[in-house]
Structure formats: structure tokens, C-alpha cells
């Protein structure tokens, strides 16, 4: 934890979700003075309250769609991590306006609430699905990034520094494919694979939250930080899980779902042309030109390098044994293997 974040007050929107909870735990163990959780579901808050038993955590029932509820939760806070979102691809396809209300207008409310409370820095959680988006969830997250960047461009003297972090698939997040495959394997069923050759970035939460802390303290307004990750095909992911549980690899092929891509893109070629590479992550700075393009003629792009999108089909590809090793780093997978009496001796539960 960066020393400058110690003894500070934080608000996490969507703090009961997979990413939000990881961030709450991280900030508590690192000495935060207070961590507030804003979310809609009081039952999930109660579960988290019982699990954490830490009086530095305060719970606010509310919704980012409601400016008043975010403004109250952000009172006296130094840093905000905005993870609240509608994130299921199929449901956003059926209800795109709901995605706009939460992911776009809700994010604008978060900025407004931060400004009203002189919050130093807010970091928005984005996704690879926001790059060259084809589904409503990704389109709404792309617009969320634009809202963050436009705030930075239009308000050079703003109280709040707004930046984004962008990630690929979070392994074992709620409702995602890994817990589903494990449930199917443990029930003795074949796993349901949409499209075996489809690729996804695989990222563990534990190794990803660092980037949020970095963004809190190092971001320039409008920056997008992109965590690099390795990728796997869905068939290899399924095979790795079957191997770990010691069952033969059998799949039922379902076909691609509404709004899915064969590969996800973490950073587009256009972004990479002016991004900085920091090893584990890219920083894409704000294009801070105003609308008077004529003024910039002399400074136009000088030479466009041969740069390619960073996507899950050209990213470093994990082999099946590598996916197995990565899965074994997840405490949830180790617990499931232990319950099935399949945890390798070399690994502790
Ligand atoms: O029964 C299933 C369900 C899913 N898949 C595939 O598994 C992959 C991952 O699916 P899933 O875990 O549902 O995640 P995504 O739909 O890729 O979306 C997740 O990952 C995104 C980051 O890319 C986040 O933004 C989203 O919020 C999060 O839901 C995809 O290729 C699916 O086609 C299957 O093969 N079989």
C-alpha cells in the first residue's frame, strides 16, 4: 500500500461485488481510516459486515443512479473507487437503457458527488469490452470512459482527478464461467462451452488491485490504465479445470451468446500509438486537444508506427498446464479442489 493512502477515507461504489470486496479488504489491511461501501443490496452488505467485523467499514444503501445517495456517501471522503455497474452482457443486451442509466449517467453522478465533496481522486473500473464495443454493456462502459475523459478535458481546475482502470475477465467473479464450470464438473456433467476457440484474458483480482492504488496517486486527469494479462481459449480453460478435478474433458457446445466477441481487446491500436508501456500495464493519456483542430495542424501525427491492437488472440497465450497453475493461485479454486479431495500435495488450501 502506498504510504500516502494510509489513514485516508475511501468510498467504494459496488463495494459488495467481486472487485469492490477485494478492494475493501486490501484498503483495510493496509491501514485505511475508513472504507465506505455504497451498494443497492442490503443483504449482500449484511453478509460482508458479518464477514469483515471491522468498525472502519460503513455501509450505505443507495444507487449511483441517485445523485443524492452518492453525494451523501462521498461526504468527507478522500478517494473513491467506482466499481458499481451493470456488467452482465446478455442482460444489458435486453435492457440497454438500464446500462445507460447505471453505467453512464450513474458514473456522471459519481463525478458530480466527488466534486461537491472535494474528493481528491476517483478511479472508474472499466473493461476490455469497452474497446471497439459490440454489446450494450461494452458500449455503455466506453461512454463511461468518455464521461471521465470529458470531465478532465473540460475542467482543468477541477477539485477531483478522474481516471479509469481497464481489465479483462476477472477469474472466479460472481456469475462468471469458472465457478459455473466447477459446479458442472462436480455434478458430473459435461461443461457447457459456448465456442471452444473463443479467447479471453485471464486475470486474478489479487494481482490487479495494485493498479487502482497507483491510479489514485499517480493518474493525470483522464488517464486510462490498462492491466496487461495473458489469455486462454475457453476450451483450454475447461480442459485445465477438468484436469485439476481429475475428470475426463467433456464439453457440450452451446454456441456464441448475444453480443459476444471471439476475442476481447484490452487496448486498441489507436490507444497504443500514444500509450506509455510500464511493463505490467499501459497508460493511455488523455487526448487533451480542444475542438479547434485547425490549430493543431502542425502538430499532427508525425509518423504512425506499425502498432497492433492488444487483444486476447494475439496476447501471450497460456498453455493448459499454465492455466492450471494460474487457477491454483485462486483461493476459491483451491477450496473447491480441497472439498473434492483433489488438492495437489504441493499446494495449501
Ligand atoms: O456456460 C458458459 C458461459 C460462458 N462461457 C464463455 O466463457 C467466457 C467468459 O464468460 P463470462 O465468465 O460469462 O464472462 P464475460 O461474458 O466475458 O464477461 C465478464 O468479463 C468482462 C470482462 O471482459 C466483465 O466486464 C464482465 O462484467 C464479466 O461478466 C466467454 O467466452 C463465454 O462465451 C462458456 O463457454 N460457457
UniProtKB/TrEMBL annotation:
Q: Where is the UDP-glucose 4-epimerase CapD C-terminal domain?
A: 287-334
A single Gene Ontology MF term assigned here is: UDP-glucose 4-epimerase activity
Keyword Isomerase listed? yes
Enzyme Commission identifier(s): 5.1.3.2
Q: What class of enzyme is it?
A: isomerase
Q: For this UniProt record, give its keywords in alphabetical order, as a comma-separated list.
A: Isomerase, Lipopolysaccharide biosynthesis
Q: Which PANTHER family match?
A: UDP-N-ACETYLGLUCOSAMINE 4,6-DEHYDRATASE (PTHR43318), UDP-N-ACETYLGLUCOSAMINE 4,6-DEHYDRATASE (INVERTING) (PTHR43318:SF2)
Instruction: Write down what this protein is called.
Output: UDP-glucose 4-epimerase
- Organism source for this protein? Pseudosporangium ferrugineum
Show the taxonomic lineage.
Answer: Bacteria, Bacillati, Actinomycetota, Actinomycetes, Micromonosporales
Amino acid at each position: 500500500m502506498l504510504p500516502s493512502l494510509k489513514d485516508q477515507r475511501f468510498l467504494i461504489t459496488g463495494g459488495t461485488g467481486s472487485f469492490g470486496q477485494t478492494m475493501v479488504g486490501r484498503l483495510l489491511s493496509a491501514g485505511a481510516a475508513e472504507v465506505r461501501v455504497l451498494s443497492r443490496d442490503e443483504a449482500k452488505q449484511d453478509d460482508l459486515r458479518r464477514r469483515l467485523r471491522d468498525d472502519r467499514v460503513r455501509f450505505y444503501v443507495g444507487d449511483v443512479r441517485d445523485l443524492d445517495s452518492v453525494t451523501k456517501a462521498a461526504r468527507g471522503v478522500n478517494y473513491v473507487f467506482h466499481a458499481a455497474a451493470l456488467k452482465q452482457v446478455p442482460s444489458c443486451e435486453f435492457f440497454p437503457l438500464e446500462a445507460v442509466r447505471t453505467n453512464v449517467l450513474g458514473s456522471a453522478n459519481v463525478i458530480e458527488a466527488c466534486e461537491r465533496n472535494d474528493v481528491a481522486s476517483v478511479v472508474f473500473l472499466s473493461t476490455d469490452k469497452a474497446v471497439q464495443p459490440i454489446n450494450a454493456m461494452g458500449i455503455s462502459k466506453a461512454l463511461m470512459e468518455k464521461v471521465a475523459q470529458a470531465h478532465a478535458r473540460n475542467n482543468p481546475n477541477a477539485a477531483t482527478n478522474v481516471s479509469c482502470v481497464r481489465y479483462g475477465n476477472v477469474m472466479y467473479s460472481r456469475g462468471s464461467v469458472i465457478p459455473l464450470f466447477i459446479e458442472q464438473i462436480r455434478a458430473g456433467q459435461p461443461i457447457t462451452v459456448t465456442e471452444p476457440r473463443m479467447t479471453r484474458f485471464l486475470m486474478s483480482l489479487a494481482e490487479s488491485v495494485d493498479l487502482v492504488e497507483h491510479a489514485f496517486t499517480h493518474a493525470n486527469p483522464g488517464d486510462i490504465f490498462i492491466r496487461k494479462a495473458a489469455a486462454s481459449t475457453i476450451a483450454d480453460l475447461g480442459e485445465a479445470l477438468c484436469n485439476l478435478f481429475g475428470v475426463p474433458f467433456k464439453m457440450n457446445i452451446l454456441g456464441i451468446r448475444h453480443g459476444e466477441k471471439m476475442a476481447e481487446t484490452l487496448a486498441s491500436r489507436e490507444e497504443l500509438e500514444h500509450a506509455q508501456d510500464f511493463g505490467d500495464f499501459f497508460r493511455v493519456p488523455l487526448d487533451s486537444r480542444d475542438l479547434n483542430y485547425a490549430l493543431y495542424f502542425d502538430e499532427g501525427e508525425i509518423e504512425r508506427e506499425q502498432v497492433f491492437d492488444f487483444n486476447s488472440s494475439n496476447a501471450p497465450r497460456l498453455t493448459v498446464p499454465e492455466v492450471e497453475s494460474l487457477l491454483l493461485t485462486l483461493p476459491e479454486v483451491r477450496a473447491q479442489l480441497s472439498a473434492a479431495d483433489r488438492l495437489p500435495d504441493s499446494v495449501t488450501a
